[in-house]
């Protein structure tokens, strides 16, 4: 178990200790469940009532909240960011692999950097390049001509098809599949003719991809995921999509092919984005939003209706079907009212 003093944490976070600087911290916890030796944080005012009763040895607080707190605190600009930094520093997550397991199948043409770790039953294809300190979890498959950048970690049962390039410091969670074929077909008299997907996937640095998410390879060019993108579990990214830097995509979102999403976007869970669209930098989609047209301006967009009693929903569904008829009636009334007598 790691441990650190409040003084050391204050240097890490550029914060100020309010209380005992020599206090030793070994882990993080919520205000409600924290115990001695743990540090907590207050980032949401609805938890303020728990501040006075917490058993945490110290609490990360903003300047404003620290003024009314009599306990030991580490005062920082943003307590939630501070919590994330402390959690990283005290992280006890085990490695995805240690050493090179004897059951791993590694092609003789593969290049392994210093410190690479490869788990049991991993398959490494021809001409693969693994950078320094890469970790490949058990059961993973790395297809030929793929590249994995330094310090990138693949958890168990990740599949990279051929010609997939991952940058440095990425995290790919179990079950993720990167580089599978895009959904490309031509129809000839009722029969589907498959279009070979000959592009690849290019993923930048510091990208995290959640469990069981899928990123299709490009049909001709590449599917691109730029630096700092975070993708939740069970997200579908189709062929030739481009996702800009530091965009976040929550779980169960589906993005059709040839979509360009800008930088610093936030895509809520269960969104659906139609193909061949452009979404500007700084767009925020709330959960379950359906996007069927280009979005040229930043801002918050929504389209899902809220939950309601079934009988009310059924009535509203009927009324929705009547909207066009109602519109035409109103249009006629307005026309008639503007007609001179």
Number of DSSP-assigned strands: 38
User: From the helix content, strand content and strand pairing, which structural class follows?
Assistant: alpha/beta
Largest sheet: 10 strands, parallel
* Strand order, largest beta sheet: 8-11-14-17-20-25-28-31-34-37
Radius of gyration: 26 Å
Low-pLDDT sequence parts: none
Shape: flat
Mean pLDDT: 96
The total count of helices amounts to: 5
> In percent, how much strand structure appears in the residues?
25-35%
Distance between the termini: 88 Å
Helix content: 10-25%
Give keywords.
28% strand; single chain; 341 residues; 10-stranded parallel sheet; 38 strands; 5 helices; alpha/beta
């Amino acid at each position: 178990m790691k441990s650190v003093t409040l003084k050391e944490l204050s240097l890490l976070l550029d914060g100020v200790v309010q209380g005992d600087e020599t206090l030793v911290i070994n882990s993080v916890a919520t205000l409600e469940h924290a115990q001695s030796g743990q540090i907590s944080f207050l980032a949401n005012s609805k938890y303020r009532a728990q501040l006075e009763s917490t058993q945490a040895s110290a609490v990360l607080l903003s300047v404003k909240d620290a003024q009314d707190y009599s306990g030991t605190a580490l005062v920082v600009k943003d307590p939630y960011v501070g919590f994330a930094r402390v959690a990283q520093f005290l992280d006890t997550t085990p490695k995805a692999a240690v050493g090179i397991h004897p059951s791993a199948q590694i092609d003789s043409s593969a290049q392994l950097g210093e410190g690479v770790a490869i788990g049991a039953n991993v398959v490494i294809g021809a001409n693969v390049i693994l950078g320094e300190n890469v970790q490949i979890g058990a059961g993973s498959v790395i297809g030929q001509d793929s590249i994995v950048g330094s310090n990138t970690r693949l958890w168990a049962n990740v599949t990279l098809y051929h010609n997939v390039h991952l940058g440095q410091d990425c995290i790919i969670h179990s079950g993720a599949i990167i580089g599978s074929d895009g959904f490309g077909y031509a129809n000839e008299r009722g029969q589907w003719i498959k279009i070979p997907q000959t592009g690849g996937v290019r993923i930048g640095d510091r990208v995290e991809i959640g469990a069981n998410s899928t990123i299709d390879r490009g049909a001709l060019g590449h599917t691109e995921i730029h630096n700092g993108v975070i993708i939740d579990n069970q997200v579908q990214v189709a062929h030739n999509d481009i996702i800009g830097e530091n965009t976040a995509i929550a779980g169960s979102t589906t993005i059709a092919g040839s979509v360009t999403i800008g930088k610093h976007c936030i895509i809520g869970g269960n969104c659906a984005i139609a193909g061949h669209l452009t979404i500007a930098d700084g767009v925020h989609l709330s959960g379950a939003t359906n996007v069927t047209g280009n979005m040229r301006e930043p801002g918050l967009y929504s389209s899902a209706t809220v939950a309601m009693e079934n009988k009310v929903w059924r009535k509203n569904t009927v009324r929705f079907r009547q909207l066009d008829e109602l519109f035409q009636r109103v249009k006629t009334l307005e026309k008639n009212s503007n007609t001179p007598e």
